[in-house]
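Figure-free illustration: sequence to structure, shown twice.
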Amino acid sequence: MEETLPKFNVQITEDRLHEGARELISKIRPEWPLNKLSFKIFTDGITNRLIGVYFDPRNKHDMVLIRIYGENTDLFIDRNTECCNMKIMYKHGLSAPIYGTFLNGICYGYSPGKVLDENLVRDSNISQLIAEKMAQMHTLKPLKTTTKNTIQQSPIQASLFRDMKKFVALVDSALPLKPSANLKLKNYYDIENLKAEINYLEQILIPLCSPIVFCHNDLLLKNIIFNESTNNVTFIDFEYSDYNYQAFDIANHFCEFCGVDSFDCSLYPNQEFQFRWLKIYLKKWYSLTNGEMDDNRLNDSILERNIEPLYNTVSKFALASCLYWGLWALVQVSNSSIDFDYESFAFQRLNEYYRRKNLSEL
């Protein structure tokens, strides 16, 4: 029988980050002296707050990470599903262990290594590791549970359009805009137009029949850790993970090459890089989904024949990535208390969506 995840009756607020962290550590690492703990505040996250706690400065790899959920994120993130996903990822060697949850967050292990940047993600060795790791994740088949923690009996469906429609409903419920809202962004708050864009994507993407697989859905550069000593990559932050279209997960990763704070579409990987990446991905994917094949027995002609169709499908799903995160940011404008410019983020992603859409219709 699967071990139940501990749930700690602790609430951590902005004004007592260290005190709340100590209270949790007393339960997770009771052998650590509370008066000798060290803390590291991570500032890269744009959904939640993250604090690292460790005892021995010589062994920071034993750090416990404490993630405090962002305000109102329960409106669009299923935290029970997130915990299940993290346990599954750890079981398959794809992530750090999870230690437990508390009233407004989660505790888990630290993944040692370098957080990727725009240069590391293009490194031939690291990009190969990412492609292979994503292929491995896409072959997992975790049981889908409902909000009541019962196993879902209905056929697995992609989360993409369900989530985007949820975002639009949340944006609609937050209107009218607060006075400080970006004037340029106001043009994108036409709810009926946003619904029409989702319908447009459904019409052009669903017929592509991209396989529905278990996806990370948020594989931005900061969510990938490279461990040089083991030559391995680890994915982190599985709060958006769910069943989704294979091509969406790949396209979303490519879109994240363009940055978060400032979206530069010129950084999107070129065709040569994508073809190389997709060949590595397909080689691993076929070897894992066809048990009788190993990586070396796969015929190059089979791979070459399938690279361009996947490339074309991924290119179309890049549209969905831009709209998805643009809508997500519109939700955050009215709900998040994190110090991040969600308005500019939304404007840049939605601008990129319409730019790509216009190019595709030429």
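We now fold a second protein in the same way, so the two outputs can be compared directly.
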Amino acid sequence: MVAHRSAKYFIPMLHTRLTYSRPVFAISRQYTTTKTTIFREIPEDAPLRDVRENLRQLGGGSVELTMNHRTSIAYILLNNPSKKNSFSGKMMAELADIVDALEKHVCDSEGVDGTTPEGVKAVVKTKEQEDIRGVILHGASETFCAGFDLSVARSHMLSKAGGQQMSRLMHNTFTRFHNLPLVSVAAVEGYAIGGGAEATTACDFRVLHRDALVRFVHANMGIVPGWGGANRLTRLVGRRNALRLLGTTEILSAEQALEIGFADEIASEDESALASSEIFLSRFIFEDPESALPYLKQHSSGGLNSTTEDASSPPPPMHAPESLRGLKQCVIATDLEGAKGLAEERRVFVSLWGGPANLAAVSRPPSKSKHRKK
């Protein structure tokens, strides 16, 4: 899989015209203080802005947004290879920042709690910015995501307050991401474990590499999904399959995922899941996806084989963005009752987080906890 270019731009530069296929929202805030990181147990009803900033100081890694306005596809990269792209608190905050930015771009709305990331208000919206139609969530270094970084959990977040803050922010972030008026695809390479498996359910579709493995390991950790994954999984695969996957923590292969309706497509042998996801999204973007394939390959940000087509050639006819976004909003409207189920899922998660079973699981060596194979 070919990763995106990793050049990072500070947010104040967003007032300039956005260029093609380059990271435009790669959060990389540096903390130069020498003070010990302190995770504050803030009130349960504290503004999500405060929860986000409290988590931002925990751990490393990054989450990066790239917008390719030639193909109308945005890319969100989970970038923490040394931890199998596990989410740190910092990455959770950055993903929330990116969802804010996407809401601002495609909805012209403010982020959670009426705030926007620093500098986003300075963006001058252009036709190119308004034309983004799809988004791909993927991981660096040929793996998707191994869930929550357990080293961060052990160091800072095994209290009930820590679990409540994390769950509250991630529920909000993934729900807002799921409800974006964009068609979203999870491009799954390698492992999608625990919270990583939950993240795939926040997307409209899932394209898996043929060697990809998905596993909901929460029961082994003495908890239930805390980011909305149980609710969304049940809607995807039905009650019986969801209960089996969650209760037995069985490993789901790409073929099995396709068979039960979890996966929508398996990448071909000579393509990465990211490249296949671009082709998958092209069906929603271009009026004639087959004839648009050479253009898509020429301007790909995801590793599709390039062609000799003139880079200055005009794009093939595309579906109107307002039509596609309107269709997504109609589908979202059918999920309104799901909010009650998400609230109950978060309540149960918080009641179990930091409990005896969870503490025992987190204290085990990595080979004997969530990463062990059956």
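Summary for the second example: The mean pLDDT is 82.
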